[in-house]
# Entry
Amino acid sequence: MTREDFDGLPGSDVDALRRFATRSTYGPGTTLFRKGDLPEEIMIVESGEIELVVDPGRERLVVQILHAGTLVDHLALILDVPYRYSAVTLTRATVLRLRLDTIAALEELFPEIGFRWLSLLAHTLDRAYERVRELTGKSAHEQVTYLLLHESAERNEPTVDLTQDEVAATLALSRQTVSRVLHDLAHEHAIKQERRRIRILDEEKLQAHLPR
# Structure
């Protein structure tokens, strides 16, 4: 399972669009847009990682982590509605920006990209539904385990670049609960906690925490 299996445009599409885009690079923690803003351009992650975040009161909830090749909340653009989330860079990230009038012209030049774009949207919605279904009614151990396996598969590598706070925000769990679960998994030698990342040591041990 690779990153493109989830929500990334093929590299050939990104290469084609890059010629018509402006490129901007941001440091970690930069807000690209806020919840409630109206979309004025399409953004594609060229490198790095970006979080889509909801801020209900003082609680910070991470909805999704976006990787290279991903369009940033393209649903708001297609539906012509305000952004439902804020977008914040998790790492140093480079973003390709395309104006809306440029997108309209590109639909005529590259209709096959438009078709893949719609397929990508359908796949993104299906994955969101699957994630909700997988996490509904699950224990904290099961939720944390599912997230680690999911993020590892999306990156196609055994490390997950998330802190305890970020895991807690993504799953809407308390940091104390996440800390306890990660401690238990580390005690089983299923994972190893490193600085700002979690390394999966034994995927089978993690899978054992998920319902059969």
About this structure: The chain has two domains: 3-133, 138-207. Confidence is low (pLDDT under 50) at residues 1-7. The first strand starts at residue 22 and ends at 26.
